[in-house]
Amino acid sequence: MIIIGRDKLPPFGEMLKLMRAYIGKDYSQDKLAGVLNISRGMISKYETDDFICPPEMRKKIKRKHGMEYLPTDESEISLYEESLDRWNTSISEKNWEEANFFREKLSVIKAFPFAKNLNASFSMYDCRMALSLNELDNAKKILDEYENRVDELNDTQKYYYYRNKGIYSGLTGCMNDASMFYHKALVLKVNVLDDSIKIYYNTAFCDERLGFIALSIDSLEEGLELYSNSKDKTALFWSYNLLGNNYTSINVFQRARKMRDNAHKIALKKYRKNEDEESKLHLGISHIGYGRMYLMKKEYLPSIENLDKALNLIPEDNANYLEAFYHKIRCFIASEDTSLCPQLISKALKLSKNNKTYNMMFKALEILENPSEESAKHLEEKILPYLLEQNCFHPVLDYAMFLSEYYKPRGQGYIMRALKMSELVSSIHKKFMERGAI
């Protein structure tokens, strides 16, 4: 018997029977003999192992049936594993022509259900490719198959299982589950070439969306310490960008500026090399980060300058355009230069009519620009609960701080409302700094 990890391959005769069954349930010994131009009796001897099938005949059988990549002896096992690695690399590089080729050729391992180790590796990469191509039903089927078999997997396979579960959970809106699975993947510490920076970014992104800013920072700092020289500059850009945003959120501006500069350097180099839509978007997002950082530092002029640059680079139908527009209006309100605000808010409400979250946020800015007791109540009772449900902690923190200050001088009837907003501010600040919460 040939050992493949925990797998055991039977004699070739049994493999040949399985190969015929995989080709088709009616694929008889006679049909196989006709294709090979030998007698049915010889096929029968191969299958009973009364006669050893020569290596050249094994190759001919596989070649005639598109099974060249199926390992049938020890010498071919390493070749199959090398092909798995090449397939995984082609998925990382989004070389879909090559990836589809390997997906089709390597799927023949399914003919050998007892080759559990190779089947598991194939399934994890197949799931990864399915998620990359948004084939969610196929990905779910694979993940469900291994849900109660995780202990059978080796560390690399477990890494991809948890990574795939994290991606699937994120794509289906289950952010808490996504974060949990990403953290399980990180614990395995598997070195997966340049792709590893992505798992750190994905983990940090989920944690940031859940409000765990310090936890998000920890993941990104660890990832960048290991993979700052990664060839995947796009992944590095997103990592530096998110880390800059995170440090801005907790007012660590010196560190935020360094991360912002790193992200901007990558975006600017890409833009100068090729002024396509993606490079414009990345450069625009970099300017949004600067704009938000300067807004938080109360340096309104450079904030507006960067946000205007972002608006000139990002198309209006992109959500990042709404992000830049939002911070620009917020900057005018914070600087008490509100003469343009009614006009800008009117335009913003039209632009965001199909985006409920941003539409609510622009309505909130309308209240901040010209508050009244009635509008403040609407902000507290309608807008804040909705945004909390969407995990929009940064605007909620902003509005809660505003409402707390708005309510305080309004007398006895507003003391409890002011206290409630202060408690909300404290709870969000506490959440931002929590670690080990997942």
Describe the overall structure.
With 438 residues, the chain is an all-alpha fold. Among the domains are: 2-72, 434 Repressor (Amino-terminal Domain) (Orthogonal Bundle), CATH 1.10.260; 230-329, no CATH class; 357-438, no CATH class. It has helices at residues 12-23, 29-36, 40-48, 55-64, 74-92, 96-106, 116-132, 136-146, 155-171, 175-187, 196-209, 213-227, 233-249, 253-273, 277-296, 300-313, 319-334, 341-351, 356-369, 373-389, 393-407, 415-433; strands at residues 2-4, 7-9. It has a two-stranded antiparallel sheet with strand order 1-2. A hairpin with a 2-residue loop joins strand 1 and strand 2 (7-9). Helix 10 (175-187) runs antiparallel to helix 11 (196-209), helix 17 (319-334) runs antiparallel to helix 18 and helix 19 (356-369) packs antiparallel against helix 20 (373-389). Mean pLDDT is 91; it is low at 1-6.
Mean pLDDT: 91
Read across the widest sheet, the strand sequence of neighbours is 1-2
| Class from secondary-structure proportions | mainly alpha
Principal-axis shape equals: elongated
Q: Low-confidence spans: pLDDT under 50, at least 5 residues?
A: 1-6
Largest sheet, in brief, is:
2 strands, antiparallel
The string of secondary-structure elements, in order, is: EEHHHHHHHHHHHHHHHHHHHHHH
The radius of gyration is: 29 Å
Q: Strand percentage, roughly?
A: under 5%
What separation lies between the terminal Cα atoms?
44 Å
